[in-house]
Amino acid sequence: MFSQVSTPPSAPPAPQLRAAIRDLCEERKAVILAHYYQDDAIQDVADFIGDSLELSRKAASTEAEVIVFCGVHFMAETAKILNPGKTVLVPDLEAGCSLADACPAEAFAAFRAQHPDHYVVSYINCSAAVKAQSDLICTSSNAVHLIEQLPVERPILFAPDQNLGRWVARQTGRELTFWPGSCIVHETFSEQALLQLRLQHPEAEVIAHPECQQHLLDLADFIGSTSKLLERVTSSPAESFIVLTEPGILHQMRRRAPQKSFHDVPGADGCSCNTCPYMRLNTMEKLWRCLEQLEPGIELEESLRQRALAPIERMLAMSA
Ligand code: 13P
Ligand code: SF4
């Protein structure tokens, strides 16, 4: 006797995927949250697009029964920490983050033990197990505002992005002790290509994400999180911009300011490694499939979830 193995349904052809995804969202009472670094088509089909802080806020307030997180693992995990009773899906579970990967929980515990008197501030780009060891979570949108609220006499440990940490230290005048992590995408931009672009477009404003290395931030006219960069392209009188962050965001920049021009900065050696290889693992087809099958989902052990929740709730309260 042969047991019957059901073959998973195949995804609709590309031109019908968008409508099929929206139909499934309705059926499953699902909401799609997407980060600005996702492919254009995913941004266009999402219910809400935002930076890490906005997406966390949205995840905390949504009434949908199912959250499909089109971003990377730590973002979906944050949504699950905030919504233990809901189904939280991510189109590709392998969509990680070099910052989160470079800060393993056990090594981080040993690092903390060397600095027992320090207040631990962790960038949201880290695992639940690192969040659980932190006093406060921050994003690139609110890091300066949060650190400014901490007592000046208290030493601070900042993890896992040393580039963001150094920028926050310069903005706040606080001395921070850094975990030595960085983002593989923001470390790849070529200074030579940036200088070349400035020569070609001398009128352009250079705008940069604080995950970039300092020698690039020193060349920027404006520095901020993805949402702040997006606001800048409409609030600035400049007509053209050189953008030092993942180029997925150019889709929304062109939407908000269609009359302006935008230039992304290539990686060293002209490679196309300025796109985030993790974010780009999510595709429209995988998005359709995860809505259809209601997997892969994020699962978390309850005591870990509770320990990771406290510093996230502190962040949401302090950045309100
Ligand atoms: P934002 O919070 O600025 O969107 O940054 C998230 C991120 O992963 C940047 O690389
Ligand atoms: Fe992580 Fe960098 Fe990708 Fe952002 S761009 S998700 S920090 S690897």
Write the SSE topology:
Elements: H1 14-28, E1 30-35, H2 40-45, E2 48-50, H3 52-61, E3 66-70, H4 73-82, E4 87-89, H5 98-101, H6 105-113, E5 119-123, H7 128-131, E6 136-138, H8 143-148, E7 156-159, H9 162-172, E8 176-178, H10 191-200, E9 205-208, H11 214-217, E10 222-223, H12 226-235, E11 240-244, H13 250-256, E12 261-264, H14 284-293, H15 302-318
Parallel strand pairs: 1-2, 1-3, 3-4, 5-6, 5-7, 7-8, 9-10, 9-11, 11-12
The protein binds 1,3-dihydroxyacetonephosphate (13P) and iron/sulfur cluster.
What's the short story on this structure?
By secondary structure, this protein is of the alpha/beta class. It has 15 helices and twelve strands. It binds 1,3-dihydroxyacetonephosphate and iron/sulfur cluster.
Low-confidence runs of at least 5 consecutive residues: none
Q: What Rg, in angstroms, do the CA atoms define?
A: 20 Å
Write out the distinct hetero groups bound to the structure: 1,3-dihydroxyacetonephosphate, iron/sulfur cluster
In what order do the strands lie side by side in the largest sheet? 2-1-3-4
- Topology as H/E string? HEHEHEHEHHEHEHEHEHEHEHEHEHH
Our estimate of the beta-strand percent is 5-15%
CATH architecture grouping of the largest domain = 3-Layer(aba) Sandwich
The total strand number stands at 12
Number of domains: 3
Query: So how many helices?
Result: 15
Alpha-beta content class: alpha/beta
* Average predicted local confidence, pLDDT: 95
Describe the biggest sheet? 4 strands, parallel
Kindly report the CATH topology of the largest domain. Rossmann fold
**Shape from CA axes?**
globular
